Amino acid sequence: MEWMMIAVGGGMGAALRYIAQQVMIHLGKASHWATAFVNLAGSFLIGAASAKGIESGSLHFLFVIGMLGAFTTFSTFAFDIVKLIDKKQWWIAFFYITLNLVGGISAFWLGWIL
Amino acid sequence: MIVGENDVGNLMQVFLGGMIGSVLRYAIQLYTGSSAMLWIVNIIGSFILGSLNGYFEKKESKFKLFFTTGMLGAFTTFSSFTQQWFRELQEHFLSGIIYAVCMTFLCFTAAFMGYLWNRGNRKWNG
After folding, report:
1. Could you report the per-residue pLDDT of B85-105, keeping only the tens digit for each?
2. CA A38 to CA A23: how far, in whole Å?
3. Where does this protein hold Na(+) (chain A) (predicted)?
4. Ranges assigned E (strand) in chain A
5. Is A11 annotated as ligand-binding?
6. Using alpha carbons only, what angle is made at residue B91 by residues A51 and A106, rounded to the nearest 5 degrees?
7. How far is CA A48 from CA A53, B51, B66, in A?
8. Distance of CA A25 to the CA centre of its chain
9. Does pTM surpass 0.90?
10. What residue spans define the domains of chain A?
11. Is A69 annotated as a binding residue?
12. How far apart are CA B82 and CA A94, in angstroms?
């Protein structure tokens, strides 16, 4: 049963991330800002889930491992950096990395204390 | 935003890819534990995503979204990484910083190498 929940949560998380990217493109912004958004929002939510002690059970599989795991992404984050450096946008690359890392850990902490 | 037939197909691809990527990630977590799992899925996933993005520049595919945004996007994860990073920082601040820098650097390098090896002859600008 846990596999089923992870699969459904994962499908939903990935679909939501794709929608976030499409919205960002629709707004005329680069899709990597959507990656930063999902990583920060997902970090905030997993921080809240950790504080609530959701460490096992169906909610853990569906929401934490499945949905938040798939909603956030490290590979797209890493590849966004490759693209930015390829375009020689060094300062944006630096800002983007800082935003994801410092923003991500801050968002986690915020979710954790709230 | 106008939702067309294509959008539904794209969303379906991402959904199915996301299901598979998440299940694979959990399978690895069961074998290795969640701490080692993060290194494995994020580095390997970044390498494969870089490779596929390079490859799809040469050769168009109808199923690009299934593999890239869906499967690899979901296989790798940022939320569990920040959770683990928070634990590392609580234990030891400096090694916590090194943890995050190493993860980011290794995943970037993996994506970069995969991309360069598979994108054909176009010159690297960076």
Report:
1. 999 999 999 999 999 999 999
2. 12
3. 69, 72
4. none
5. no
6. 50
7. 9, 35, 30
8. 17
9. yes
10. 1-113
11. yes
12. 19
